[in-house]
Amino acid sequence: MKVILPSVPPGTLLHLRAGEWYTGGAPAMEETEIQVVAIDRTDPRTRDGEPEVWVSAHWSTCMHPMRQGHLRCFGNYIRVTAIVREVAAR
Questions:
Q1: Which of 15, 17, 33, 63 has a CA between 20 and 30 Å from the CA of residue 53?
Q2: Mind giving me the DSSP string for the chain?
């Protein structure tokens, strides 16, 4: 499956709605905000008919998101439609 994503530079803030990201393998029931570090475009998957990609990021509340050596706070699958919506809104 080929997934077409817009350019999402490191540091881009994404506002994710409930059901657009996962926690413990299940769709999250709350909204969150993350700051993108990297998106893995090479291994997309489909869940419930919607493509998803793995995103490494920091929570928006992270005190040291771009400090060298600071481990990423967040790594999970995110729906492509959420990424496209957030980039288009900028």
A1: 63
A2: ---------TT-EEEEPTTSBEETTEE-SS-EEEEEEEEEEEEEEEETTEEEEEEEEEETT-S-TTSTTPPPSEEEEEEHHHHHHHHHT-
